[in-house]
Amino acid sequence: MKIIATNIGERREIFWKNKTVNTGIFKFPVDEPIFLDKEEVRGDEISDRKNHGGINQAIYGYSLKHYEYWKNLYPNLAWSYGMFGENLTIDDLEETNIHVGDTFKVGETILEATLQRNPCYKLGIRFNDMKIVKQLWNTTKCGVYFKVLQTGFVNVNDSFEKVESCPENATIADLLIQRKKEKAI
Predict the structure, then answer these.
(1) CA atoms within 13 A on the CB side of 43
(2) Which of 2, 15, 17, 90 is the most buried (most CB within 10 A)?
(3) Helix (H, G, I), strand (E, B) or coil at 100
(4) Which is it for strands 109-116 and 144-150: parallel, antiparallel or unpaired?
(5) Residue 46 phi/psi, 5° resolution?
(6) Residue 162: beta bridge partners?
(7) CA 39 – CA 151 distance, rounded (Å)
């Protein structure tokens, strides 16, 4: 696997259900390396620290292969990497094959898979269509949160290499399915 895009977002104010909300979901590719720190990507906006950022959700990765599926459903969007709010667009990240605890070497960093991304209304705002939230819940194309075990820079075209596998643990897709059941979605 390899990094297709590194994405950063700035704080954006949006008007949602009669109130102003801050978000960092509008991420776009950058041309320079990004620094993956212990709790976030340096310089990337995280407006909702309850659900994003922190030790176990420091980095969000999403698969390039999933983009084709969504482009068929939303052909009129102005597509760019970072559409799902991911920091790293990775060519072939498959949630059904990644287990909690799997460890990856990328650029100067070492990352550990920790959690699934639960879709929320801000994704619907990004897509200008709230249907995307339920549609994502009905797939396993949720993306992967990573803990940063070793900080450092990551750049486009860096290899994303698995260095440790934990097949005894649940997959990221399993976590999403379990969360969906808990929420009765």
Answers:
(1) 14
(2) 90
(3) coil
(4) antiparallel
(5) -125, 105
(6) 104
(7) 10
pLDDT for 23 equals 87
180-185: Cβ within 8 A, 24+ apart? 180/137, 185/134, 185/137
Query: What DSSP character marks residue 66?
Result: H
* Nearest of 45, 59, 183, 172 to residue 111 by alpha carbon: 59
155, with CB counted inside 10 A (0-12, 13-18, 19+), is: middle
For 185, the token pair is 């979605």
Q: 36-54 pLDDT, tens per residue?
A: 999 999 998 777 777 777 8
Give residue-wise pLDDT tens across range 92-108: 999 999 999 999 999 99
How far apart CA 115 and CA 29 sit, in angstroms, is 23
- Burial of 148: CB neighbours in 10 Å, binned 0-12, 13-18, 19+: buried
The dihedral over CA atoms of 104, 106, 109, 110, expressed in degrees to the nearest 10, equals: 0
Per-residue pLDDT reduced to its tens digit, 109-126: 999 999 999 988 889 989
